[in-house]
Every structure is written in structure tokens, then in C-alpha cells.
Amino acid sequence: MKKQRGQAVVEFALVLPIFLALVFSIIVCGMLFADYMTLSNVARSSAREAALQGSEKYADIRTNYRSSTKLLSNLYTWPDDDTNFDIAAGELDDSVQVTITTTLNPNFPGVSVVKNGYFNSSFPPDTYMIKYSMHDEATNASGN
Asked: Which is deepest, 5, 20, 24, 40, by most CB within 10 Å?
């Protein structure tokens, strides 16, 4: 009976690190996905507002979203300047394009181990860049 208990403890000690790595990777992937969805929603919403309100409101829209939106985790930094949260005329005629770029937070727990340590991984990505284009309704409305 004692040998079976010892065997169970050894098996548990061997399986536990693999199980914890799996659980923590699922949690990190969930946080990444939540941050990506937040950034996508902000890009879509700000492009919609910019398309309706016109180019004179771009700075106000950017300031509003920057002050009122938070990411779920601190894994990525929220864009704090106009180059990382850009609202401009799009590449297509009569369109507005929003580009949001975030960078990986090197102070987030475990990032240095995953990125530079034992794993030497390209995951998580160093930057997220989300572009969203929308037809500019403010320009079209004034043209009619």
C-alpha cells in the first residue's frame, strides 16, 4: 500500500508542471484575446464616430476613447499618443481609417521568461496593430 502512495506522489509531481503550464497558457491566451477584442471594438467604434462626425472631431474622439477604455490586463500598453492611435483619411476615396498599435509590456509578470528566457518564443507578439476602415458619411453628406 505504501508503494502505491509513493507512486501516486511521483506521478503527481511529474504531471503537475505540465498541467500548470497548460492552465496558465490558456489564461494568458484568454487575456490576449480579450485585449484584442477590446482594441478591435475601439477601432470600429471610433471609425464609426469619425465617419459620422467629420475630421474636425478626430482629436476629441481619440481623447474620449483613450480616457474611457481600459484593457483587461496590463500585458499590452494602451496607446498613449496620436501615432499609436491614429484616425486619418483612408486609402480609399471617402473613407476614414483608424489604426491602433499597442506594444508588449516588458514589466508584466512572466513576459521576460517567455520572451527572452528558456522558451525564446515569438509568443506573445511584441505589437498588436489593428486597422479599421469605414466609409466617410460626413464627407458624403456635405457633398450632396
From this structure: 40
Give the position of cell 475601439.
42
Measure Cα distances from 77 to 17, 45, 51, 80, 113 in Å.
30, 19, 26, 8, 19
Buried b (16+ CB within 10 A) or exposed e, 32-50: beebeebbeebbebbbbbb
Helix (H, G, I), strand (E, B) or coil at 70: coil
What Å distances lie between residue 69 and 65, 92, 128, CA to CA? Answer: 6, 28, 16
Query: pTM here?
Result: 0.77
pLDDT tens digits, residue range 110-132? 777 677 665 556 777 888 889 98
Question: E strands, the chain, where?
Answer: 85-89, 95-103, 127-135
**Cell numbers describing residue 64:** 474620449
DSSP 3-state of 13: helix
